[in-house]
Design goal:
Layout (H helix, E strand, L loop, with lengths): L1 H5 L2 H5 L1 H6 L2 E3 L8 H8 L5 E4 L7 H17 L7 E4 L1 E3 L2 E2 L13 H5 L4 H17 L4 E2 L24 H17 L3 E7 L5 E2 L9 E2 L3 H6 L2 H9 L4 E4 L3 E4 L2 E3 L6 H11 L5 E4 L5 H6 L2 H11 L4 E3 L3 H16 L5 H18 L2 H4 L5 H22 L1 E5 L16 E6 L8 H9 L8 H4 L9 H12 L5 E6 L6 H9 L2 E6 L6 H15 L13 E5 L14 E4 L5 H11 L12 H5 L12 E2 L2 H17 L24 E9 L6 E10 L4 E9 L9
Parallel strand pairs: 1-2, 1-14, 2-3, 3-6, 6-7, 7-10, 9-11, 10-13, 16-17, 16-18, 18-19, 19-20
Antiparallel strand pairs: 4-5, 8-9, 11-12, 15-20, 21-22, 22-23, 23-24
Helix pairs in contact: 7-8, 7-17, 8-10, 13-14, 17-23, 20-23
Length: 685
């Protein structure tokens, strides 16, 4: 450690300077505000979060980032600021620039291409673009395993529901980001993949899985990313309630940060807390107290998204915590070392004060444009096409009319549509900070108008385009359906917006009931396209032709048009278990079943029997009473016996046991006993 300590020098001597390095803060504005200036100059703030609302174009972003670094440099900061943002692609990008910043598919869209090499290339390109603007910390990869497919906020931000797959894509993204020279941040530990939303707005989403369950699936990608050198980890603000764990906010719990992440996963990088401005947290604990709890739990950097008063409260809370000896100096020193180590990897004053900006971006542009098109073309997935409606030329003549029905959606935060809107309207919106970092105001058909136009460009017949809402199928829709020769419906997260599901089913029924003038039944061709979560109709065979694009950026919709018109043959496949088994059940852990080995397992089997007996009420009789591991071994010449166990190879403990016997005389086989440790049930052992 000796060598490491030296570079704490100038920062460590001055407690105020030190404490500033332990915060990451955001601000409202597209230029430097007096508040953020003060935080950098007087409080020596060490890290900054930029969101869509701070960023106009690539050029202005480069300028803003440079100004922030210059203020830090002139205020005597020994090391540059870490400046981070979410650039997850798909619908979650903070930085948008039609000319210089390319658009790539979301995590799930990339997983649909089936190529981790492509994931690496996309991550590297994304990070090169933001790094050109001076950003040195990317808030990704997203390592959540989507075990709850109806999980609203995450959806296509994850690589799917298979822990191994999420893991290999997560590590590929991480390596791509690193290759471009930026620091990485895994999220959202210990997993937002299966949150239950229980109760009111003040309540936080809850993880209900036991640590054992988490460790078998949700933690796999986190564990692998840590092994491969992840720089930082964001710990969520969710609650956890299961056997042996009752945590109000994960990022304030030493069981989660110190126990699970540091000790079990052996992570020694920078731990970042979820934004402490969450209503539930400030309401229950207060931000000053929350900051002290987060640092004591093991967080190195405390995130506060936007409110200047709250940010000041957090800084003074931490100071008080040290003065009152609630936090030790050595705890602070540890965090400082981790932060400075990370900064040494991703920045220097030379780099921070000379962002390459547009000159580099224009060099990258041709190859990145090609990559963007290739990624989208490879991700579009035709899940089903029962009646061979694709390409549309199979079923509709060039001069016939085509109907496009689209829902009303929010435009993506970083998109031209939302730019146009936010110029003359800025609407704050309630809801947890994290989902709002990239959300923006409502807009009607604008988002899909361009799709209607590009569908029309290639046909002589008209494309009729109208939207639908929670009011369902109106007379005008019915008239248009009757007029058109084929119908395309878009849905965007129909799981969450149930009216879309109802509308689609209703239109599907109308299309099925069409008759020719001669009175014979003739189905009207209907194509359903999910432009966000692929789970909308993945399991619904009644929707015969079903396509998924994973996001509704213009680039994605361009690739969709190519698929609809047959210029591109679709190669994407639904990621995760859904495509393997077409079953959306909870993804099951595959346990290793081993043959019982008396020498190795006898004591563990006795312990398991003992555990089983403890679970029996005193007045109940159990088949196992008085038995031991010996009871199952018949050792009889006329009986073949084979017994099986599911065990923990590290602790040697048995989780489950099964005995089987084959009686030679009668030629029959029987299962003698099957039992599973009561705390390990419902895990498909």
């Amino acid at each position: 450690m000796g060598g490491k300590e030296t570079h704490l020098g100038p920062v460590w001597d001055d407690m105020d300077k030190t404490l500033g390095q332990l915060f990451m803060m955001g601000f409202d504005g597209t230029t430097v505000t007096p508040q953020i200036r003060k935080l950098i100059q007087e409080h020596h703030l060490g890290s900054i979060l930029l969101v869509a609302k701070n960023l106009k174009s690539a050029e202005e972003t480069t300028q803003l980032v440079y100004q922030l670094q210059k203020i830090a440099h002139d205020a005597g900061h020994p090391v540059p600021l870490a400046i981070g943002l979410d650039q997850e692609n798909g619908g979650v990008n903070s930085l948008f620039d039609e000319i210089y910043i390319r658009q790539y598919p979301s995590a799930m869209g990339v997983a649909a291409t089936g190529s981790t090499d492509l994931a690496y290339a996309v991550a590297k390109a994304t990070a090169e673009e933001v790094a050109a603007c001076g950003i040195n910390w990317i808030m990704g990869p997203c390592l959540d395993v989507l075990t709850n497919a109806r999980n609203q906020p995450l959806g296509v931000r994850t690589s799917g529901d298979d822990p191994q797959e999420v893991s290999s894509y997560g590590v590929a993204y991480m390596k791509g980001y690193k290759e471009a020279g930026v620091a990485t941040m895994g999220k959202h530990f210990p997993s937002y993949g299966n949150l239950e939303f229980l109760g009111s707005a003040l309540d936080v989403p809850t993880i209900t899985e036991s640590l054992e369950q988490l460790s078998l699936s949700a933690l796999v990608p986190f564990r692998n990313a840590v092994r491969q050198g992840l720089d930082a980890m964001m710990v969520g603000g969710c609650a956890m309630s299961s056997a042996g764990l009752n945590v109000m906010h994960a990022c304030l719990s030493d069981q989660v940060v110190d126990g699970l992440l540091r000790t079990d996963l052996k992570f020694d990088g920078v731990v970042v807390s979820e934004c402490l401005e969450m209503e539930a947290l400030s309401h229950n604990i207060g931000v000053g107290g929350g900051t002290v709890m987060a640092v004591n739990a093991g967080c190195d950097v405390v995130l506060l998204c936007r409110s200047f008063t709250v940010q000041q409260e957090a800084i003074s809370g931490l100071k008080r915590g040290i003065e009152n000896s609630m936090i030790t100096k050595s705890r602070i020193r540890q965090s400082l070392r981790r932060v400075l180590d990370m900064k040494a990897k991703c920045t220097s004053w030379e780099k921070a004060l000379n962002p390459p900006g547009l000159s580099l971006l224009s060099k990258l542009q041709p190859s990145h444009t090609t990559l963007s098109t290739r990624a989208y073309n490879s991700s579009i997935t035709v899940v089903r096409d029962k009646n061979r409606l694709l390409p549309l030329t199979n079923v509709i003549e060039p001069e016939e009319e085509l109907l496009l029905l689209t829902p009303l959606v929010k435009p993506l935060a970083a998109s031209a549509a939302s730019r146009a809107l936010s110029e003359h309207a800025s609407a704050g919106s309630p809801g947890p900070a994290i989902w709002e970092r990239s959300a923006s105001v409502m807009s009607g058909e604008r988002v899909f108008r361009e799709l209607g136009r590009s569908l029309a460009r290639q046909r002589s017949g008209r494309v009729l385009h109208t939207s639908y809402t929670a009011n369902g199928v109106r007379p005008q829709h019915e008239n248009l359906i009757n007029r058109a020769s084929a119908v395309i419906i878009l849905t965007a997260d129909a799981n969450r917006n149930l009216y879309q599901n109802g509308f689609t089913k209703h239109v599907s029924m109308i299309c099925n009931m069409q008759y020719t003038s001669g009175g014979e039944k003739r189905e009207k061709p209907l194509v359903v396209v999910s432009v966000s979560s692929p789970y909308d109709f993945a399991m619904d065979p009644a929707i015969g032709t079903y396509i998924c694009t994973y996001d509704f950026t213009e680039t994605a919709l361009n690739s969709l048009v190519k698929v609809l018109y047959g210029e591109l043959s679709p190669t994407g496949a639904l990621p995760g278990s859904i495509s393997q088994s077409q079953k959306l059940s909870q993804s099951r852990q595959h346990w290793l079943v081993e043959a019982f080995n008396e020498e190795r397992d006898a004591n563990a089997l006795d312990a398991l029997i003992q555990t089983m007996m403890e679970g029996v009420a005193p007045n109940q009789r159990s088949e196992l009473s008085g038995s031991s591991s010996n009871s199952f071994l018949l050792r009889h010449p006329e009986v073949l016996e084979s017994h099986f166990v599911v065990r923990n190879s590290s602790t040697q403990a048995l989780y489950g046991f099964c005995s089987t016997y084959f009686f030679k005389a009668s030629g029959t086989g029987v299962i003698g006993a099957v039992f599973v440790d009561p705390t390990r049930r419902k895990l498909s052992i």
